[in-house]
Specification:
Helix content: 10-25%
Number of strands: 47
Largest sheet: 9 strands, mixed
Structural class: alpha+beta
């Protein structure tokens, strides 16, 4: 039986593996094993694939297919021989029909396994449509405000410093008196009142009439929250400065001073000037008590440059911080219950108590593009209002679900989470005034510095603008028109922030505005009800586009009684006599691009000489990875960690290290204003004595979680899973041990731990995967795909979650990689396994490390090289790297990805290798490393690369390598 002889029973997985093991244990004959396996494979394939043909491409189905096809061909062969005998006509007829059935089924299987009509994956080559679908001056929705649909735009070049050379938000770069005049005039123009006090009173009355059906102004004791934008710059805070309470000057990750001679201006976010004027008006003109006003971006601390500017005049205002209540900040907390119910019914979120308790909100955002949504204004500002440590769980509704990549979700009538944020009774519908800070408008990336704008009337200068409205849809529609005109791929802006310049002009950027304006534009099956009230949201404002980028006129400006009313200060910058683009006196050269479509920039690699070694290494032009100098340091007296096994970052860029001396908290290095390593700071601080010290024995790996009660470390040990709260001042003083005696965990032997979303924790144990969702242990249900014995026989070596946190990749020693996910019934289910099946190019089934980058690419380190898998089709886009094509050593123990997508760092037993997208650069002790045995790599939010070894730890930054041993 040739087919029976070729069947590879050892590759069976899931229920077929269970059957195989049972039959072998009971000494079932090989021939009968073949028949039973063939029948079960056929039945399983039919049950799984017929309802959903795409499952034929699953690796588990790929394994079942050979058993099924071998069995079918065997039957066909028997049938053919029977037919040839021509002895039993009745049997001939039966076999003929049976053979025909199996032949047809084989064709169906072949088509299913190799479909020609598969939907394109993420990396498909997109021809992206640009511009909005609706034509100029075609308003939709219901105009809101004292003067319905009114948006006021104030512009004055005297507000900003043309030759701004350092951090735009420093006081000397903006004229506060000019900003005061701009905002006060805008407020009076918005309401039609003659004074600031009357303007605020009329806005309070309008708000209360609309929301509470009461014609009343502000009542003493009511709370006001001013929501600012500081999310993008959060990751660039200097940890040493935060420790001193300064929180100063977050730098842009896109650009650092000296790369091309232009200055580092800092991340474009809310600056002090407009908020200071709002505080002055509310407190001095309206008589509101300071303690009844709060300011902040809930996910983040209040930066020092803002805090100093505001607290000097108003020390009793509440300045928020979610991690600590020191240095004049007030600690805020997530709400007890979920308050945001996203209308696609996919997830929910908590907010912060400062938002839940607010009677009024003022939303102060920035004028800037966004690499995922196209633009980021007041609606997107609320990504920082929900209580998770980040907002990646909301990116699936963006046009580009992976920031900086070509859009895969463009167009109209798609679910947009921004509509829920605008419609929430705690957020958009609790807002009395919307403000856009356009004094220094942003560049192509939301995390980068401001740049000068080309369009009229800016003409090569800073945008120097303020926009305000009571109609959020109208305000964002106007600012969208500005941004899509400026950022349509035509101009080449300052290189400090001009990557992907056409994103604001992608078709569908304003899809959320269409939907917020009119429910007829909602996607099929979506009813926006973010409060879970049972009542759909009403129209949230009026949307339309201006007549053209020069005159900038909307329907009410053209004499209609319906639509947007754009009022400018001064009046002459809109209308028939508005200025056109003119660079005669701008002192800035206009750069024009050939294409208006976004394209990826190819970065050329070239050889550079390493001064430290005299060797040439491959480097990205302008961003070389090289070691120019080596700095040797020692730990403080009495502190002698030798091996550094693992490290994690907290949400404020703090570091935790797992060493042979225990868990350590502290900063190894600070950085100066140019992001260079400082030689002055080099101490580690031990954590405080833990009450239950036994839980900190035999530690294996750990992760950081910002829980509702504060920072928390989850630590894997061989006697259970440890939950260790981290206190700001005292460190870890107590801990909880979860084991089989007090939890539904499969085993006390915890090999690794990973975090999903919505407080989902994964524990890789000696018997399988356990998961804790909030306070509920989930039931394992992955037997359908592979039995518990897979993890028992093949130890779990590493785990990594996807960006949305739902899928878990599990690396094993000998069993390859498996993918596990949480299904809709709160159980752990298997999706597929990555073993050496079909076209999957895994260099080995012994896996030591897994890294999933922000764009979803999986890097899998093995004992025979590293595999890279791009996209979401399991069977496609695999690449293997080993010593033959770039790696320094084939035993890959750790992998880390630069959060901005520039480099992938690979630590091996034989040294360090760095991949820039086209070539590898490699380093060993000959280049200055303290050891070639790299145990972990971690990259912090300032771009410092931490390299843990069996002989101490190293930190790399911009050519400098600092070594502790």
């Amino acid at each position: 039986m040739i087919f029976k002889d070729r069947i590879q029973y050892h590759k069976l997985r899931g229920r077929l593996e269970i059957v195989r093991d049972w039959m072998r244990n009971h000494h079932i004959p090989e021939g009968l094993l073949f028949v039973i396996t063939g029948i079960l494979s056929t039945i399983w394939f039919l049950i799984r694939v017929i309802p959903k043909p795409s499952r034929a491409a699953y690796p588990c189905m790929r394994v079942a297919a050979p058993f099924m096809s071998g069995f079918i061909i065997y039957l066909l062969t028997v049938g053919g021989l029977t037919f040839a005998s021509r002895k039993l006509k009745l049997r001939i007829i039966n076999v003929r029909y049976l053979s025909a059935f199996f032949l047809m089924f084989a064709v169906i299987v072949a088509v299913a396994i190799n479909p020609s009509g598969n939907s394109a994956g993420y990396n498909q080559d997109l021809t992206t449509k640009t511009g909005p679908d609706d034509l100029p001056n075609q308003p939709i929705g219901t105009a809101l405000g004292i003067n319905p649909g009114r948006v006021v735009w104030a512009w004055d070049t005297a507000a900003t410093k043309r030759n701004c050379t350092s951090y735009y938000f420093k006081p000397g770069n903006t004229d506060q008196k000019v900003v005061t005049f701009m905002f006060s005039q805008s407020l009076n123009m918005l309401t039609g009142e003659a004074s600031v006090a009357k303007s605020w009173d009329s806005m309070f009355r309008y708000f209360n009439s609309k929301r509470h059906q009461e014609n009343r102004g502000y009542t003493p004791g009511e709370k006001i929250f001013i929501k600012i934008n500081q999310t993008s710059g959060r990751g660039r805070l200097r940890e040493a400065e935060r420790a001193k309470g300064n929180f100063y000057y977050p730098a842009s990750h896109n650009h650092q001073s000296g790369e091309d001679g232009s200055p580092d201006l800092g991340t474009c976010e809310t600056s002090p000037f407009l908020v200071l004027q709002i505080l002055r008006q509310l407190i001095n003109d309206c008589g509101i008590e300071q303690q009844d006003i709060a300011v902040g971006d809930p996910q983040n601390p209040t930066y020092g440059h803002n805090f100093d500017a505001w607290s000097t005049e108003f020390p009793d205002v509440v300045y928020t911080d979610r991690t600590a209540g020191s240095y004049g900040r007030t600690l805020i907390h997530p709400t007890r219950n979920d308050l945001l119910f996203y209308s696609d019914k996919f997830q929910t979120d908590k907010l912060y108590d400062i938002i839940e308790d607010a009677d009024y909100m003022i939303n102060v955002a920035n004028l800037k593009p966004h690499s995922g949504t196209g633009i980021t204004l007041t609606a997107k500002n609320h990504f920082g209002s929900q209580s998770r440590s980040g907002a990646y769980h909301l990116h699936y509704s963006h046009l580009s679900q992976i920031e900086g990549k070509p859009p895969t979700n463009a167009g109209y009538h798609k679910y947009r989470v921004l509509v829920d944020l605008m419609g929430s009774k705690y957020l958009g519908q609790n807002t009395i005034l919307y403000v856009i800070d356009g004094l220094y408008a942003g560049g192509a990336s939301e995390g980068g510095p401001p740049v000068k704008y080309f369009m009229a009337p800016f003409n090569g200068n800073w945008s120097s603008s303020v926009f305000i409205s009571q109609d959020q849809v109208a305000l964002e529609s106007v600012c969208y028109d500005f941004l899509r005109t400026e950022w349509n791929g035509t101009y080449s802006h300052d290189p400090s922030n001009n990557f992907f310049e056409a994103m604001p002009d992608i078709n569908g950027v304003d899809d959320y505005l269409h939907q917020a304006a009119d429910s007829s534009n909602w996607p099929k099956g979506i009813v926006y009800d973010p409060d879970n009230s049972g009542k759909p949201i009403p129209s949230l404002g009026i949307h339309e586009h201006w007549n053209n980028p020069v005159n900038k006129q909307y329907s009410r400006n053209l004499g209609k009684d319906y639509g947007i009313d754009l009022v400018s200060i001064p009046a002459g910058i809109t209308g028939m006599n508005a200025p056109k683009m003119d660079f005669g006196s701008a002192g800035m050269k206009l750069g024009v691009k050939e294409s208006k479509n976004p394209v990826s920039k190819n970065v050329k690699a070239e050889a550079v000489l390493n001064p430290a070694t005299g060797k040439a290494s491959m480097a990205v032009k302008g961003k070389s990875i090289e070691i120019n100098s080596v700095i040797n340091r020692s730990f403080r007296k009495g502190f002698k960690p030798g091996k550094f096994y693992a490290a994690v970052l907290d949400d404020n860029n703090g570091k935790y290290f797992l060493t042979d001396a225990g868990v350590i908290r502290g900063d190894l290095f600070s950085v100066d204003d140019n992001m260079h390593l400082s030689e002055a700071n080099g101490k580690l601080s031990d954590l405080a004595n833990v009450n239950n010290a036994v839980v900190f024995q035999r530690l294996k790996s750990f992760v950081y979680e910002l829980s509702g009660s504060g920072p928390l470390l989850w630590i894997a040990t061989d006697h259970g899973a440890v939950a260790a709260p981290v206190h700001e001042e005292s460190g870890i003083t107590d801990a909880v041990l979860y084991d089989t005696s007090n939890a539904d965990i499969l085993s006390n032997n915890i090999l690794s731990v990973a975090l999903g979303r919505n407080r989902l924790r994964w524990f890789g144990t000696g018997k399988g995967i356990s998961a804790l969702l909030d306070n509920k242990w989930l039931t394992p249900a992955y037997q359908e795909v592979y039995p518990e014995s897979l993890f028992r026989y093949y130890p779990i070596t590493s785990m990594a979650t996807t960006s949305n946190g739902d899928s878990l990749y599990v690396g094993t020693e000998g069993g390859g990689v498996s993918r596990v996910f949480r299904d809709n019934v709160d159980a752990i289910s298997g999706a597929s396994s990555y073993l050496q099946w079909g076209p999957i190019e895994m260099p080995s089934d012994t896996v030591y490390s897994i890294c999933i980058t922000r764009d979803g690419t999986q890097w899998i380190g093995t004992n025979n090289g590293v595999a890279r898998h791009a996209g979401y089709n399991t069977l496609e886009n695999w690449t293997v790297f080993n010593t033959a094509n770039g790696l320094i050593d084939n035993v890959v123990q750790t992998i880390a990805a630069d959060p901005y997508g520039r480099y992938v760092w690979v630590g091996t037993k034989g040294g360090l290798s760095v991949y820039d997208g086209s070539v590898w650069s490699s380093f060993t002790v000959k280049d200055g490393l303290i050891s070639d045995n790299i145990l972990f790599i971690m990259i912090d939010k300032n771009g410092l690369v931490y390299l843990g070894t069996d002989n101490g730890i190293m930190v790399y930054s911009e050519g400098k390598l600092a070594c502790y041993k």
